[in-house]
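Q: Give me the 3D complex with manganese (II) ion.
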Amino acid sequence: MNTSKTPGSTLTPGVTPVGELPSNSHVRQWLAECIKLCHPDHVRVLDGSAAEKRDLLKRAVADGVLLRLNQDKLPGCYLHRSHSNDVARTEHCTYICTPNENLAGPINNWMPPKDAYALLGGLFCGCMRGRTMYVVPFVMGPLGSPLARVGIEITDSIYVAISMGIMTRMGKAAWQQLGDGNDFTRCLHSVGDLDPARRYICHFLEDNTLWSFGSGYGGNALLGKKCLALRLASYLGFQEGWMAEHMLLMGVTDPHGEKTYIAGAFPSACGKTNFAMLIPPEKYRQAGWKITTLGDDIVWMYVKPEDGRLYAINPEAGYFGVVPGTNARTNPNAMEMIAHDTIYTNVALLPDGDVWWESKTEDPPAECIDWAGKPWVPGCGRPAAHPNSRFTTPMTNNPVLDPNVNDPGGVPVSGIVFGGRRSKTIPLVYQAFNWTHGVYLGGTLGSETTAAATGQVGVVRRDPMAMLPFCGYNINLYFTHWIRMRKRMRDCPRIFHVNWFRMEDGRYLWPGFGENMRVLEWIINRCRGRAYAAETILGWMPRPADIDQEGLDSTPEQFAAAQAIDADALKREILTHEELFLKLAGELPKELIFQRELLIARL
Ligand code: GTP
Ligand code: SPV
Ligand code: MN
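A: Here is the predicted complex, encoded as structure tokens.
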């Protein structure tokens, strides 16, 4: 292999990296620059081995970064408490740095690269004094996949280093894939002093470079995830003719023994992980339905020339999932998955070293230590776990992991599902008339904001394709790219819209979770040309008889209410599309304008 054990002398005098560094001169030169800038006391190059992981965990515990949980109940599990100002993505601190502002487009924050390098260069200067710099090589995507990309993250957070080991194919495999090449994403990260006023997540599209300062939180700090696999990758996909999307990826085996792959874009904390791991109701399992997971957050999709179909891979190797709401009733697969070798962030700690969060059990514990480390008792007026508390777990923990998850070529996608969190107006399920109409449905997707990002929770905002915070370039070009992808395909996925979250009198009209299988059955059958649909204003919809409701707790009236279309409410909804369209000021692809006109004409 292309490594040498005596790299130290070529780097900054005084710091000899521990671990094996490849002879790759691009890597060495960049690392030397980062050492010179950040002045770490120690440098450690990670190899991704099991022994290394054990050692990192030991150190993190010794440093108080991780707390060892009850190993009888939760073998290999640890708790991390983050700073109370650093618990979610900070979209207002996230920048696209391109020479031309127009490439960042109307919905991204923009900074000229020169200014960003100067500003962040000042912050990074000497920021790792007294600290260890971890050099974390990683691959996004199945090894050997033509889509797979190499990144190297330099970080002063041991929590980030360990998490990257779970979330990516981390270690020697990355050096192997990179060889002597220069095609890797340069990811520089420091937690700094966690001052929110000096927090920046910068994406240098032209330089294949990410600089993140001042946060240790997942989406801000695990730079392979949202920063590389979505923001940078979406721009690469635009240039190279493929797609990077905020989507889950699942396999659905039906009673015929046929397998159909579905991708789904729901905004942050709107149900991707849960849908991707769905356990069908008993009756469906008996009949032979089975769900397997490929991914829960990000897919990369390309058109295979051989058959002209859209194929998808999951670039990640782990799940960074929402904890609250997860329990033995809603997601038993996830409960099994996070019972070992998992890092919990910002959940509550029980006296016996177990963990707890809201809704984990019906009755709260008599006492615990809350996510911030303070004593907690029921009724004290604070949540025990942070609403955006998370688990970090390797995908191999998933009891229903799809056997094709490491297939370098990916799996063919037959359906794309868009979904938002909408307590009003939006029906349970409908299907787009065609691809362009589907792009309109995705493009105007609305959802109530959640705790996954800082800011107000529960307000409806437009979140095109669930990519509002993750589209790394001009959203108008992104829409155009979606529309043009159709021309590359001989046969295209069917597109659907779902809403599990419609409410009446403060209660969900649809039971959700495993029962979503009933909607999924219709979706699969539509993709395979086996189910009926009625034409409506919004698109194709199942009649009540087209969705199996036998054994459902909810009533036919509730189903009707979940599917109801109220023309007046829809008119108001269409007016709110305006809010988005005005921001896109004149550059919106004409296809979307025509779709809007057609929708209005149908009303
Ligand atoms: P990110 O990791 O932020 O991208 O989130 P996600 O889209 O993967 O969402 P996730 O599956 O983690 O669900 C977020 C929250 O919604 C959790 O509290 C779930 O329990 C809840 N949830 C998921 N699916 C359903 C559903 O079908 N019905 C209801 N009522 N709640 C759901
Ligand atoms: C999201 O917010 O969509 C997440 C969590 O998946 S994070 O990785 O922090 O962005
Ligand atoms: Mn997400």
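A quick observation: The radius of gyration is 24 Å.
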